[in-house]
Structures are given as C-alpha cells and as structure tokens.
Amino acid sequence: MSNLVRLKLLCLISVLFSISAIPAFSAESSSEQQFSFETEVSNEALWGNQSFELFAESDNFFRRLFGVSRRTNVKPNSRSQRHSTSRPRRYSPPASNSQNPDTYEGKSRSLPSSDGNSVRNTPKPPLERSRRDQYQSLGVWELGLMIGTSHAISDIGGNKGIPVGDFAEYHTTNFSLGGGLYGRYIMNDWFAMNLGMGFANLNAEREFAPEGSEVFRFNNDIFEFYVKSEFRLPALARSPFDLYGFVGIGIFFSDASIYDINDRLISTQDDYSQVQPVIPFGGGFSVKITDSFRIGYELGWRNTIFHYLDGVKKDETYDHYFLNSIKIGFIF
C-alpha cells in the first residue's frame, strides 16, 4: 500500500472520530446543566432563599452559560406592583355620590323634569344685591317729570347785563311756572342720554320812557324739544347720589304778546320765525330713594340766537331764559 493511500485513510478516520465526539459532548453539557439545576433546587430547599440570593448575585457569565433567565421570582410577602405578574391596567376611582346629582348621602331624591346636567350648570342667584346695584341702575331707562320756575332775560324785563347781585334779586321776584317730561337712559358711570320736552311761561314789565308814561308788558309761552348728553361723576357711582353736567341741542316754539299800559294788545311790525334753535346746558344732582324712585334738582340755561322772546328788539343782544326744576324720576 502506498503512502498516499495511507494518508487518505488516516484523514478519513480523523473526520469520523470528530463527528462521533460531538453528540457525546452535547450530552455531557446537558447532564452538567441538569445537574446544576438540580443542585440549585436542592440548595434552595435546604437553605431557603439564601442560596437563591447568592446565585442571583453571581457573575452573569454563569447565567449565560446555563441559560438562566434574569426574571426574579416574587416573594410571598411582597406587595409591590413592580414585581407582580398581574398588574392592573388602569386605576378606576370609586363611585362618588357627588358625580350623580340624583343621589345625596346614598339616598335618591326626586328632581324636576330636567336632566342632571342642567342641575349642575344652573348658576345660583347671589345672596344679596351689591350696593352698586342698589343705588345705581346702569343700562336702564328712567322716566320722569320736572316742575319749577322759568325766568326770562329780555329787553322788556330790563335784566340784560346787570350785576350778579341785582340779577339774583330780580329773578327771586320775577318768575313764572315751568316744567316738562323727560326720558333718560343711563349707559355707564360716565355717560347718560336725555330726551325730553319742556314748557316755560315768560313774562315781565318795563318802563321805556324817562317820564314813565309808556309801560310795556309781554307774555310768551315756550314749548321746547331737546336731546341732551349728560356727563356724570363716576366717583359717586357706588353711592345713592348722582352729580352731572349736560349740554345738548333743541328747538322751541315762541308766541310772544306785548301790551300797553291799558293792557291792550300791541302788534309788532317786525317779522320773525316762531320756531328757533336753542342750546340747553347746565347741571344737576339727584338722590336715589329706592330701587325705582329718584328725586333731584336741575338748573338749565337756554342759550338762543333770537331777539324776540319779549316781542321787541332794542339792541343786538340776544334774549335768553333759564329753568329751575325739581326732578322726580321712575326707574324701570
């Protein structure tokens, strides 16, 4: 037999021997691993959890070698949900009577014909009205009447351009009746609108001639319609008082009649229109007595561009008039 043939036979025998040795090594490893598990179980039964804890603290090489899982067993007395195998998926709060408007302290109650949501969402009325709501009514209407005195500043009256003292003394004894109706809308603490109509009776006497032989008297009934803007004092918004000033625009109807010393009607030769514009301005204050009743005072000047309130024209100065009025208002 040649050397080449011998070498081939030797290689074949080596390969066959290697293949036959692999199952034996695997069986030996399995028996060794089984032996290691049996030893671990017997140690745990003998020593309790002490051997398990020692093995748990060993090197990870042996875990990988023997194929031991990293999962730890749960101790019987542990309450932690972290190590529990049956964790609750979510937390469900216990039932509460406060979430159900139909029950109170575990007892059912009968409700009016409505669902539970309407009970929870219905706002409760305040225990008491605020002082602002008691004394001031914002965004509401006030209707009222005015009654007082009317005063003319004219040529026959002779009270144009006189000093303040003489002016006051004259008008304390020379006045007539005046009044009117108004509607007032209070918008806010600063502002209000006033729409109304008024009546004023104007009359006066005067001697034109130095010797006093010619005496004239006039009488005029004024009807006016106006709209006024009132500017209120907001510092008194939370009190029963109301202080304001006003300015506006309007028109009035004039029908003057003049008489001589024998009280005979005298016709005038001047031609003028009986409808004239007027600018009312002034101020006033009021006190709220109840939620729906208010009383106050107003002084209103009427500035005109008219010469014939008394029926005659003496100079280029315009005639004017003003009103002193007591106001009585009803709020709704």
Q: Could you please describe the fold and organization of this structure?
A:
24% of the residues lie in helices and 38% in strands. By secondary structure, it is of the alpha+beta class. It folds into two domains: 22-70, no CATH class; 135-331, Porin, CATH 2.40.160.20. A hairpin with a 4-residue loop joins strand 4 and strand 5 (191-207). Helix 1 crosses helix 2. Residues 25-38 and 40-52 have low confidence and may be disordered.
In short:
With 332 residues, the protein is an alpha+beta fold. The chain has helices at 3-47, 49-56, 60-66, 116-121, 131-135, 164-173; strands at 103-104, 107-108, 140-153, 176-186, 191-207, 215-232, 241-253, 256-259, 265-266, 275-290, 293-306, 319-331. The longest helix has 45 residues, at 3-47.
The overall pLDDT average reads 75
Order of helices and strands: HHHEEHHEHEEEEEEEEE
Shape designation? rod-shaped
- The number of distinct helices, counting runs of at least 4 residues, comes to 6
How large a portion of the residues is in β-strands, by DSSP E?
A: 35-45%
Low-confidence segments, ≥5 residues, pLDDT <50?
25-38, 40-52
- The CATH level-2 architecture of the largest domain is identified as Beta Barrel
- Which quaternary structure do these chains form? single chain
Q: Reading side by side through the largest sheet, how are the strands ordered?
A: 3-4-5-6-7-10-11-12
Q: Rg to the nearest angstrom? A: 55 Å
* Helix coverage percent: 10-25%
Assign the structural class, choosing from mainly alpha, mainly beta, alpha/beta, alpha+beta, or little secondary structure: alpha+beta
